[in-house]
Amino acid sequence: MVKDIVKYPTTPSVEFGTDVRLFNEELFSIIEDLKDTIIENNLDGLVGYQIGYYFNVIVIKDENGEFLELINPRVLKTEGKTIVTESTAYFPGLTAKVQRYASISLVYQDREGKQHSMKADGDLSILLQRKIDYTFGSSFINKLSKNEKKLFEKKLEYGSDIAISESCPTIFKRDYIVKAINALMIAMIILFLSSFFVSDESAKTIWNYQIYLCFGAIGLNIVYFFYAQYEGKQFTSCSSCQIGNIIGTTAISLIYLSVIMLLSYFII
Description:
Number of domains: 2
Number of strands: 5
Number of helices: 6
CATH topology of the largest domain: Peptide Deformylase
Strand content: 15-25%
Low-confidence stretches: none
Radius of gyration: 30 Å
Shape: rod-shaped
Order of helices and strands: HEEEEEHHHHH
């Protein structure tokens, strides 16, 4: 049966890592629930805690779609260290850089209670370490460095995995849109001034160009307004000042554009 996945802020607890003593139908049912939930959510693995069960049971799905059942797993040996970017269903949509062991050796029991041992490295090692954390009432947030934990706590606060800057950058990509708008308005001013030195017929042609440039500038202002807000969300710590700047820049640009068009309309 597919179960709801436990998510933050529900707190992991050591009571969810109770060792299995009875290898019976209740245990088999839990294992099947883990498998069904993994398949339904397209996950690589789940531990009993993540679907609300108290037993120390982990189910992993390999690249061939086969399931590995680990009951009462215990890490015996670790080798090497590596930094990996992890995600977990417990913190949906969020990632963090975590230091893990490159490989681990562990023992576990199967559904018949028989003892097994295995060595895991690569992605499997990382996955098993993350799942075993839950059986000790922990999650990867407790493995983070001081700076990474500070960053991840901000991600939790804002519900976004976008990197959060401590301060606003001095240059945004949206600034290039503003430069393009300014270039169009300069072209409009040049056309306006040139209209004083041409014939009436040429002035009409200039007016048509003015209209095209005006629509282009208005279109770029619209693009700027929405893209600037999207870009601003990447720097949440200074978003309050950005929205005022975005509105002000757009308003000033449209005012200048209106003045140029009014002068062109009455004079050209």
